[in-house]
């Protein structure tokens, strides 16, 4: 399945903000997902990093991999965190 499942890149490699991608894996009606979205949107908007949402109920592979962990945040296709998003940690992961 596309780039969402690729391996994490070496931490020493620096990318420009617009070359990064944060993916929020969520489901409708999930209050933790709503909370995670607020943090992801704030951090990504501040840093100029693109982000996307993926609905776990619409993707069988995401459902299989992450159902018990949602919301899940991926940074450049590698799992960064699940359940709760720590804003400072996400900023560090994105090089801020």
UniProtKB/TrEMBL annotation:
Signal peptide as annotated in the record: none
InterPro entries, per the entry: Glutaredoxin-like, Glutaredoxin-like_YDR286C, Thioredoxin-like_sf
Coiled-coil parts of chain: none
Short name of any one Pfam family annotated for the protein: Glrx-like
Alphabetized SUPFAM superfamilies for the sequence: Thioredoxin-like
Gene3D superfamilies assigned to the protein according to its UniProt record, in alphabetical order: Glutaredoxin
PANTHER family for this protein: GLUTAREDOXIN-LIKE PROTEIN C5ORF63 HOMOLOG
Protein name, per record: Thioredoxin family protein
Organism: Streptomyces minutiscleroticus
